Backbone:
C-alpha cells in the first residue's frame, strides 16, 4: 500500500493516512503541546513518507513505529529550531478558553486534565516521549526502543523515572482520586 | 521479550487512569484537506519545490478559531464570531499556502473574507499562486497589507462583559487555589516565571517600548505643566497661556508618535498592522497605569502627612478662631541659661549679653553676724534712700513711709513676696542682726547693701548691683532671659501670648467660581507681623477661578493684636483656611 501511495495512488495514501493520522497527531500534540505545530508535524510526517517511501524498511519495524520515529524527529527538529519548548501561557491558553463557557463538570475534568498535562510537560523530553508512547499510544517497550533508537533497558529506565516524577507531581490526585470521582458524581446528579 | 517487565509496568493502573484524564482532540478536517492537497501537488508535478517542512515557517501558518454555533472557522484575531457573536475557541489551524484554499475563500461571505485578510500574505511558493496573485490585482501583497480591516466585536454590553470576565477570573483563581495550597512556593515560582515570560514577550513586540517611552514622556510633560500651573497660580502668569502650552505639548507628542508609526508602517495610529497597533495601545495604557499608580501613591502619602500635621496643629491650638491653625514648624529654642543670682554668670536688663558685675555690703557694726532674710526691692534707677534693716523700724513720728531698696538690677533680683524681715540671703543666722559691717546695710561690708562688698548692691564687689567686681549693669544673652532676638518670626508654641484677632473679613465668591460650582478650601500660610500687618502670604493649597486671590485679599484685611514674647510684640506664623461652599 505504501508503494502504491508512493507512486501517486491517492486512495492508498488516504487509507494509510486515515489509519495512522490520529495516533501520529496525538503523539505530536502531546510531545509539542500545540495543536498548530502538531498538525504541521503530522503534515510533514506523511509528506516525507510519500516522498521517500524507500526509507521505510518493513524488516526493521512496523509502519506505525516508523511514522512515530519520523514524528519524533520532526518534533525534535522543531525544538531545535525554536530553541525552547512551549511556555506556560501557551499551554494553559486552551484550557482557559474552553473553561470560560463550559459547565462545572467539564471544568473539573479540565482542571484535572490540565494538571496531568502540566505534569507530563514538566518531564524531560526523552522521558516524556517514552511515557506518551507507552501510556497513551500503547506501544510495547520494543517498539518504543525502535522509535527512540535506544535499547529496551534505557526505555524502561526512562519510563520508570517518568512515572516516579508523575507520581510526585500528581500525588494529591492519586491519593484521593476516588474522592474526586465521587464528588464529580454528585455534581453530575445535581446537574441531571 | 519483556512480558514480565511489561506486566509490572502495566500494574500501575492508578497512574494510568489518571494519565488518561488528559485527552486530546483528533486532527481537524482542515489538516486532512491540507495533506490531501499536498499529496496531489506532490504528484501533479506543478511544484518543483519541496513543501515538506516548509509549512513550519511561522509566516505560513495561520492559526484559526472555531465557532461552535455556525461551525465556521475565523482568523485568530477574532474573539467573537462575526456572524452570530458566539465566543470563538482555538480549534484548529488553517493553512493558506495552497491556492485552492485561498481561492475557496471567495465563496465565503464578505465578512469572512475580511477576516481572512488579517492573515499574513503567504510566501509565494509556486507558479500557480503567482498567477493567482497577479490575477487578483496588480498591487499584490502590498495591497493586502494596507487594506482597512473590519473588526467585529460582540454586541454585548460593556458591563455584562466586564462582569463575565471578572467572574471567569474569580473562577480561575478558585480552580488554582488547591494547587497553590499543595505547593505554594512551586506555584508562586511557576506563576512568576509564566508572567515574566508573558511580560518579556509583550515587551519584545514591535513598537511596545517606543510607545511606553512616549506615554511616559507625555505623562511627565502633563504633570510638569500642572505643577507649573499650580506654582505660578498666584504670581500672575496667564493660566490660559499655560493650558495652551500643555495642549500644544501633548499634541506634539501625539503627532510625533503618529509620525513614527506612519513612517514605519505607512499607516495611522490604528493602522494596517492590527497586532502592532494593539501592542502599542496596550503599552501606552500600561505605561499610563504605571505612572498614575506611582503618582497616586505619592499624593496619598503627601495627603496623609499633611493630615497628621494638621492634627498636631489643632491639638495645640489655643486661639479659638475658626479655620485657623498654628504653624508647627520647628524653630530653634533658646538655651534656658542661668538667671539672676549666679555670681554674674547670668544676664540682665540690657538687650545684648553682658556679664553683670558689682556688689555691695554694709552692716551696723553689730556683734552678731547678719541674719537671714529677704532682699528688698532692687532697682538700678532709683538711688537708695533707706538701707535694709532686719529689725522693723519703730517710727515714733509717722511721716511718708519709704521702702528699703538695694542698688541692683531688678531682673537679677526679683521682688521677694515672702513675709520675712530683710536680711542676708546667704546667712544661716535667724537672730535679727545687721551684721558687723558699716554703713547701715546688712553683712560684713561697707555701705547700704547686703553682703561683704562695698556699696548698695548685693554680695561681694563694689558700687552696687550683683556679681562681684566693680559695678556693671549686665544684660542679654541666653542666660538672662531678658535679651533674645524678637525680630524673628515665632511659632505658636514659642510666643508667650498668641496673636488675637480683632476682625476677620470673609472672602467673597467670584462669579466664575460660582458659575463653575467650585467649592473647597484655600489654605494660606501667613505671618501676623509684630507691626499688625499680615505679610509673607503663601498658598498651601488653592482653588481656581480667582478664589485663591480672594482669600489672599481677605487675609490682608485681617486686624489683630500681635503676639507677644516676654513682653515684646513679635511676628508669628499662622495658617489660615478659607472654606468656600455653595449652598
Residues:
Amino acid at each position: 500500500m505504501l508503494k502504491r501511495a508512493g507512486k501517486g495512488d491517492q486512495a492508498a495514501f488516504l487509507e494509510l493516512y486515515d489509519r495512522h493520522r490520529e495516533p501520529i497527531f496525538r503523539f505530536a500534540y502531546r510531545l509539542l503541546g500545540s495543536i498548530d505545530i502538531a498538525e504541521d508535524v503530522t503534515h510533514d510526517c506523511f509528506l516525507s513518507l510519500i516522498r521517500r517511501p524507500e526509507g521505510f524498511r518493513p524488516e526493521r519495524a512496523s509502519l506505525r513505529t516508523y511514522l512515530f520515529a519520523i514524528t519524533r524527529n520532526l518534533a525534535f527538529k522543531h525544538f531545535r529550531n525554536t530553541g525552547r519548548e512551549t511556555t506556560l501561557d501557551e499551554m494553559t491558553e486552551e484550557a482557559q478558553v474552553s473553561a470560560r463557557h463550559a459547565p462545572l463538570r467539564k471544568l473539573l475534568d479540565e482542571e484535572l486534565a490540565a494538571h496531568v498535562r502540566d505534569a507530563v510537560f514538566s518531564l524531560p523530553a526523552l522521558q516524556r516521549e517514552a511515557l506518551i508512547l507507552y501510556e497513551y499510544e500503547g506501544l510495547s517497550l520494543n517498539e518504543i526502543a525502535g522509535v527512540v533508537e535506544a535499547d529496551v533497558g534505557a526505555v524502561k529506565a526512562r519510563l520508570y523515572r517518568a512515572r516516579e516524577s508523575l507520581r510526585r507531581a500528581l500525588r494529591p490526585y492519586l491519593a484521593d482520586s476516588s474522592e474526586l470521582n465521587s464528588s464529580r458524581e454528585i455534581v453530575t446528579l445535581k446537574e441531571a | 521479550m519483556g512480558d514480565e517487565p511489561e506486566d509490572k509496568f502495566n500494574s500501575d493502573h492508578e497512574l494510568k487512569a489518571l494519565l488518561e484524564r488528559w485527552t486530546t482532540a483528533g486532527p481537524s478536517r482542515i489538516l486532512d484537506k491540507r495533506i490531501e492537497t499536498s499529496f496531489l501537488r506532490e504528484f501533479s508535478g506543478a511544484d518543483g519545490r519541496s513543501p515538506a517542512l516548509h509549512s513550519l515557517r511561522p509566516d505560513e501558518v495561520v492559526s484559526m478559531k472555531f465557532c461552535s454555533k455556525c461551525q465556521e472557522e475565523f482568523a485568530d484575531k477574532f474573539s467573537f464570531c462575526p456572524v452570530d457573536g458566539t465566543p470563538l475557541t482555538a480549534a484548529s489551524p488553517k493553512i493558506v499556502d495552497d491556492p485552492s484554499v485561498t481561492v475557496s475563500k471567495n465563496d465565503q461571505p464578505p465578512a469572512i473574507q475580511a477576516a481572512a485578510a488579517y492573515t499574513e500574505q503567504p510566501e509565494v511558493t509556486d507558479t500557480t499562486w503567482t498567477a493567482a496573485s497577479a490575477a487578483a490585482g496588480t498591487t499584490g501583497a502590498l495591497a493586502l497589507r494596507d487594506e482597512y480591516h473590519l473588526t467585529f466585536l460582540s454586541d454585548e454590553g460593556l458591563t455584562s462583559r466586564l462582569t463575565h470576565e471578572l467572574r471567569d477570573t474569580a473562577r480561575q483563581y478558585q480552580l488554582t487555589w488547591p494547587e497553590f495550597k499543595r505547593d505554594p512556593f512551586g506555584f508562586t515560582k511557576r506563576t512568576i516565571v509564566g508572567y515574566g515570560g508573558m511580560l518579556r514577550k509583550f515587551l519584545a513586540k514591535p513598537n511596545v517600548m517606543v510607545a511606553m517611552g512616549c506615554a511616559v514622556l507625555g505623562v511627565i510633560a502633563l504633570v510638569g505643566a500642572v505643577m507649573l500651573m499650580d506654582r505660578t497660580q498666584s504670581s500672575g502668569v496667564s493660566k490660559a497661556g499655560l493650558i495652551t502650552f500643555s495642549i500644544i505639548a501633548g499634541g506634539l507628542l501625539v503627532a510625533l508618535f503618529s509620525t513614527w508609526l506612519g513612517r514605519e508602517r505607512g499607516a495611522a495610529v490604528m493602522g494596517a498592522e492590527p497586532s502592532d497597533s494593539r501592542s502599542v495601545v496596550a503599552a501606552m495604557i500600561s505605561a499610563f497605569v504605571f505612572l498614575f499608580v506611582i503618582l497616586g501613591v505619592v499624593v496619598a502619602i503627601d495627603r496623609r502627612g499633611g493630615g497628621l500635621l494638621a492634627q498636631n496643629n489643632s491639638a495645640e491650638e489655643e486661639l479659638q478662631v475658626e479655620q485657623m491653625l498654628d504653624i508647627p514648624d520647628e524653630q530653634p529654642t533658646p538655651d534656658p541659661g542661668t538667671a539672676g543670682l549666679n555670681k554674674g554668670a547670668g544676664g540682665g536688663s540690657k538687650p545684648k549679653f553682658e556679664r553683670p558685675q558689682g556688689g555691695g555690703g554694709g552692716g551696723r557694726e553689730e556683734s552678731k553676724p547678719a541674719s537671714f532674710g529677704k532682699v528688698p526691692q532692687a532697682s538700678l534707677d532709683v538711688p537708695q534712700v533707706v538701707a535694709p534693716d532686719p529689725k522693723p523700724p519703730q517710727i515714733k513720728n509717722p511721716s511718708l513711709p519709704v521702702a528699703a531698696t538695694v542698688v541692683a538690677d531688678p531682673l537679677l533680683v526679683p521682688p521677694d513676696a515672702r513675709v520675712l524681715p530683710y536680711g542676708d540671703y546667704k546667712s544661716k543666722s535667724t537672730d535679727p542682726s545687721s551684721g558687723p559691717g558699716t554703713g547701715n546695710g546688712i553683712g560684713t561690708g561697707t555701705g547700704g547693701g547686703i553682703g561683704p562688698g562695698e556699696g548698695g548692691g548685693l554680695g561681694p564687689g563694689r558700687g552696687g548691683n550683683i556679681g562681684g567686681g566693680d559695678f556693671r549693669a549686665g544684660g542679654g544673652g541666653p542666660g538672662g532671659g531678658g535679651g533674645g532676638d524678637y525680630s524673628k518670626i515665632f511659632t505658636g508654641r514659642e510666643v508667650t501670648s498668641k496673636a488675637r484677632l480683632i476682625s476677620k473679613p470673609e472672602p467673597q465668591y467670584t462669579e466664575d467660581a460660582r458659575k463653575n460650582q467650585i467649592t473647597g478650601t484655600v489654605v494660606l500660610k501667613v505671618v501676623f507681623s509684630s507691626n499688625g500687618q499680615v505679610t509673607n502670604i503663601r498658598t498651601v493649597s488653592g482653588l481656581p477661578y480667582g478664589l485663591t486671590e480672594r482669600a489672599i485679599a481677605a487675609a490682608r484685611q485681617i486686624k489683630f493684636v500681635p503676639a507677644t514674647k516676654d513682653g515684646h510684640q513679635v511676628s508669628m506664623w499662622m495658617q489660615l483656611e478659607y472654606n468656600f461652599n455653595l449652598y
Notes: Chain A touches chain B through 68 residues (CB under 8 Å). Confidence is low (pLDDT under 50) at residues 84-102, 176-192 of chain A.
